[in-house]
Please model this.
Amino acid sequence: MQLNFFEALVDCLACYKSPYLEITIEITESLFIENIERLLPIFQKMKDEKISLSLDDFGTGYSSLSMLRNVPIDELKIDKSFVDHIANNKNDCAMVSSIITMGKNLGMTVLAEGVENKEQATILQEAGCDLYQGYYFSKPLNLTDLEKYIDTL
Model:
């Protein structure tokens, strides 16, 4: 992430008169860990401007849990590698459940990536997961197909 990213983002949003509340910046856990000292001031500026931050691939890197309480993250995205086996692996199920509980206790929205079947969706729902992403709901869609999909809901 470039140092002038925040300023460029704010300028772009002002150009399109887009409310900041509609913007979420997603950063991978590995990029987050490798650049925390440089990124923290940028994240704080974003938070001050009501721009949401999402931590992607959570659980795959070596993040320190203590950093989570000091960084203005709004959303944790549980990596698909944990979701894949929650129906038949007690350890993965316990890990996902713990991540959901921790995220919610820290005031974060929790999203599970890679949900591919009803059993996974049910387990995640029962664990209190807020949002789900994966082929169980839909494959990735272009804008035209997305509009059609939304009309069917």
User: Anything to note?
Assistant: Residues 54 and 75 are 4 Å apart (CA to CA). Strands lie at 24-28, 52-58, 75-78, 109-112, 131-132. The radius of gyration is 17 Å. The first helix runs from residue 5 to 16.
